Amino acid sequence: MDQLEQARVEINAIDKEMAALFERRMQAVNDVAAYKLAHQLPILDVSREQAVIRKNLEYLQDESLKPYFQQVLEMMMQVSRDFQKHKIGQRCVVYPGVEGAFSHIAAKQLFPEASLHQVYTFEEAFQAVECGEAEFGVVPFENSYTGEVGEVLDHLLYYDLHIQDVYDLKIQQNLLVLPGTDLADIKQVYSHPQAISQSRKFLDCYHWEVIPYTNTATAAKYVSETKDPSKAAIASGETAALYGLEILKEHINTSDQNTTRFIVISKQMRSFGNRFHILFTLRHDAGQLAKVMQLIAEYGFNMESIKSRPLHDQPWQYYFYVELDGNIADPHTADLLRALEKQCEKVKLLGAFNARKG
Ligand SMILES: C=C(O[C@@H]1C=C(C(=O)O)C=C[C@H]1O)C(=O)O
């Protein structure tokens, strides 16, 4: 046998073993699909995929093979998701805004195999999921620079829905114009108020009229339709391609770390992860919030975030949102929740998620 033949005999033997292992893996994936169908979980789990890649790459002895093995792992998980899609059927996911909006970009990344539908407002996304028209909704929750999206937080209090997942999308704002436009031609700039405040430093260098718009992508669409070179929009690079605009200035957001946290809303609550979030309301007496903070500290939970928002039907009264490190499945968490239920007027467990530390 020459060298080529010998190597191929070896490859054939390895492929035979891999075929058996592939069948075993797909049986396990089949069980995962059945669980996800029963518990209405999304097919893609980004943090799990990242962990699978990280762990498996560590098993390799030969460093130079790592990028190739990573490709194999990514392909294998794509196959696994295709298989699950076939088993579960197509999921329906709604997002607010138009094609090219950041919610659409996040929804595409979170649900690459789903059928995506747009709605106009955040509330319509909540309504579609609550009435069962859609299984999931992807809505913005918080921006690292401009803070929470208050309206979305409020809907979480008033709608009987939970957070199924949390996804951080790096946001890059760009100045979009009709092809051939110069900076000197611009007189008005349109965008969502959050994108405007994220790009404040850039905008302050010019004397343009800045006009708030429903969202970044509709602003870009509007500029494209007017065919007026004195109008520009602030939006994603993807939006430029969609509406035939040109990126005149890229990356105009003040902070490089500009990230928007999106949430997946669903009727089901996710029960696994290293962090969880809750909403609560209090009796309007002195020291109530301090007592809740004390309970969280006494039970040894690290609080990552606290926010307060006005209650719609009780002027000058507020509800609170907190994010705590810990596992919902842990009995210690159940103890904390029981203690909070005694202390608070209302407690709503929104769900668990995997937060990357550091
Ligand atoms: C199998 C799963 O579904 C998907 C596919 C994965 C895989 O094949 O390893 C991992 C995460 C998910 O995106 C899972 O959630 O475990």
From TrEMBL:
Q: Which SUPFAM superfamilies match?
A: ACT-like, Chorismate mutase II, Periplasmic binding protein-like II
Q: GO terms for biological process?
A: chorismate metabolic process; L-phenylalanine biosynthetic process
**Chorismate mutase domain residues:** 1-84
InterPro entries hit by this protein: ACT-like_dom_sf, ACT_dom, Chor_mutase/pphenate_deHydtase, Chorismate_II_sf, CM_dom_sf, CM_II_prokaryot, Preph_deHydtase
Q: Does the keyword Amino-acid biosynthesis apply?
A: yes
Kindly list the places in or outside the cell where this protein is found, as annotated in its UniProt entry. Cytoplasm
Q: Which residues form the ACT domain?
A: 277-354
This protein's pathway reads: Amino-acid biosynthesis; L-phenylalanine biosynthesis; phenylpyruvate from prephenate: step 1/1; Metabolic intermediate biosynthesis; prephenate biosynthesis; prephenate from chorismate: step 1/1
The entry's cellular-component GO terms read:
cytoplasm
Site annotation Essential for prephenate dehydratase activity: residues = 260
Report the principal subcellular site. cytoplasm
Reactions accelerated catalytically: chorismate = prephenate; prephenate + H(+) = 3-phenylpyruvate + CO2 + H2O
Q: Where does substrate bind?
A: 8, 25, 36, 45, 49, 80, 84
Q: Which PANTHER family match?
A: PREPHENATE DEHYDRATASE P PROTEIN, PREPHENATE DEHYDRATASE-RELATED
- Record protein name field: Bifunctional chorismate mutase/prephenate dehydratase
